[in-house]
Amino acid sequence: MLEYSVLGSMQHIFNEGVDAASMSEWSEDETSFMARALEIAERGRMKVSPNPLVGCVLVKDGKIIAEGWHDHLGGLHAEQMAIHDAEERGISPNGSTAYVTLEPCNHFGRTPPCTEALMWAGIKEVIIAHEDPNPTVRGKGSQTLTDAGIKVRTGLCKQDAHEQMLPFMHWCEHRRPLVTVKLAQNLEGSVDDRSGMSKRFTSEECLRHVHELRANVDAILVGANTVVRDDPQLTVRGIGVKNQPLRIVIDPNKRCSVDAQFTKGEGEFLHLTSDFTSLESLLHMLADRNIQRLLVEGGPMTILEFLEHGFVDEFFFVHSDVTHTEPYLSNIDTVVLESHGLTCVERLQWGLEEVHHYRKNL
Ligand code: AOF
Ligand code: ZN
Per residue in 217-246, pLDDT tens? Predict the structure, then answer.
């Protein structure tokens, strides 16, 4: 489990298997089966976007007989993989209960409908954590199952499933990506020491966490000032990813060199110059390109723009205790974050740096 993900830390549900809100409605066994489905859904992390992470377990006579998860984009859906797993083990899924973290789909997409697979497999009951807000599904999956005489119950560990699928849920609901910001500064609020060449002032271990964060987003954005000063590559390094995030630079005054690092190497980039109109239209355009989670890495002016428009959903505020000879102040602090609807939900340690993780109530 990755501590920096939108999940914060989901470890509690895997350890305790309890979703407080559902305690009265659901048995302990049911809750632990769904907790397992949520746990195995994690195996698709960094591989399924723009699809959500989905897990499924099949239960017969009080025991898990098969497991499946949506492993990668274009791969089997969780339910189909679980049915396949039962067959491979030589166990009939007939008469079992499916615990699935998302309402089964009812459409022909990259795969045939999961509702049909469940019916064919003779599943007698389907327990769902969260409805699928995708317009092509939205209740139709549950309805199809019910019409076929399969018992359907929904809402077990719903909050945890929502958290796990947050970028997907947000994208379905708002048609714009979830915006995550990362900003590192020292105790006086400086993001750069202007007395010399630009250089990283946070620890090696902190950098590793930043790359993990990058590996969990679909796009990374910076403003022109950051490119001119730091010339970053904006790629994921040290972690195997199937696709590099889309690199986006906002540069309306055409200040970036045609030779800038972000234009090089593997992966796509978007250099927005005169074609940049507004953050809002950019976010909608990104959503249309299936970008569900965007990481804004700087600089402070770009981040403030996002904050002032109310577009920041999540903020990793990295605090270093190095001193800067010629500080460059961000003008971003706790008060600014709180005034834009963000609340500190946890404190993390990324190497030498303490990180305050802020979130909107999503
Ligand atoms: C499920 N089980 O494991 C997942 C579902 O293009 P496709 O065929 O991969 O379908 C993608 C949509 O299906 C996705 O947007 C979401 O609504 C649903 N994902 N559904 O029954 C799964 N990953
Ligand atoms: Zn499906």
Answer: 999 999 999 999 999 999 999 999 989 999
How far is Cα 99 from Cα 127, in angstroms, rounded to an integer?
A: 5
pLDDT value of position 17: 47
Selected catalytic residue, list 30, 39, 67, 79: 79
| pLDDT value, residue 110 | 84
Q: Is the distance from the beta carbon of residue 51 to the nearest atom of ligand 1 less than 6 Å? A: yes
The C-alpha atoms of residue 77 and residue 86 are separated, in whole angstroms, by 15
Task: Give the dihedral sign, CA 40/170/292/80.
Answer: positive
Regions of the chain with pLDDT less than 70: 1-24
Distance in angstroms (rounded) separating the CA atoms of residues 168 and 132: 10
Q: Are the C-beta atoms of residues 61 and 54 closer than 8 Å to each other?
A: no
Residue among 105, 123, 292 to mutate when testing ligand 1 (max atoms within 8 A of CB): 105
What was the pLDDT predicted at 9?
A: 42
Neighbours of ion ligand 2 (CB under 5 A): 77, 105, 114
DSSP 292-335: -EEEEEE-HHHHHHHHHTT---EEEEEEE----SSEEE----HH
* DSSP H or E stretch at residue 96: none
Question: What pLDDT is attached to residue 197?
Answer: 92
Per the structure block, which two tokens stand in for 262? 């972000």
Task: Report which ligand 1 atom has the smallest distance to the Cα of 73.
Answer: 9
CB atoms within 10 A of CB 223: 23
Whole-number Cα distances in Å, 168 to 9, 109, 152, 337: 18, 16, 23, 24
Task: Give 133 Cα–ligand 2 centroid separation in angstroms.
Answer: 13
Pocket probe for ligand 1: among 42, 51, 80, the residue whose CB has the most ligand atoms within 8 Å is 51
Closest atom of ligand 1 to CA, residue 136: 17
> Tokens standing for 146?
């019910």
- The yes-or-no answer on residue 79 being catalytic is yes
